[in-house]
Amino acid sequence: MNASRFFRSFKFAAEGIRAALAKEQNVRFHFLSAIIVVLAAFFTGLSYIEWLIIIGLIGGMIALEMVNSALERVVDLVTGDFHPLAKQAKDIAAGAVLVFALASAIIGLLIFMPKWF
Ligand SMILES: Nc1ncnc2c1ncn2[C@@H]1O[C@H](COP(=O)(O)OP(=O)(O)OP(=O)(O)O)[C@@H](O)[C@H]1O
């Protein structure tokens, strides 16, 4: 891949992030949550490994929410009609987001709680 193609792909990815922030309330919510968690981590004082875990979870959560939003668009593009497969596709993707969010919340509690109480 040459440099100009690389930067073109990078530009499209940046447009994707901008579109997700502009059009998806859930993505905005996760960005806001990420800022709060990073501030809490900063003031709590985490170890190097704990920072790696928190950053990994934040990145994974936002990326997964964006993939979910992309999948919703593809489903809506394919059919405007009610279709059981469309429902399964959207609900499974939403379920994946929920699984990751729950796991992240538990890991977050396990990291922060012992330092606060
Ligand atoms: N074309 C479709 N056929 C069948 N079920 C659908 C279809 N589109 C959406 N659904 C289902 O209807 C419910 C609500 O979907 P809706 O599109 O309103 O929200 P969403 O796509 O889940 O997320 P968001 O509110 O973030 O857009 C979900 O269970 C979804 O799977």
From TrEMBL:
This is Undecaprenol kinase. Belongs to the bacterial diacylglycerol kinase family. GO terms for molecular function: ATP binding; kinase activity; metal ion binding. Mn(2+), Zn(2+), Cd(2+) and Co(2+) support activity to lesser extents. It comes from Planomicrobium soli. Its main location: membrane. GO terms for cellular component: plasma membrane. Its cofactor is Mg(2+). It is found in: Cell membrane. A divalent metal cation binds at E24, E72. Substrate binds at R5, E65. The chain crosses the membrane at residues 27-45, 51-71, 92-113. It holds the Pfam family DAGK_prokar. Keywords: ATP-binding, Cell membrane, Kinase, Lipid biosynthesis, Lipid metabolism, Magnesium, Membrane, Metal-binding, Nucleotide-binding, Phospholipid biosynthesis, Phospholipid metabolism, Transferase, Transmembrane, Transmembrane helix. The keyword Cell membrane applies. The keyword Lipid metabolism applies.
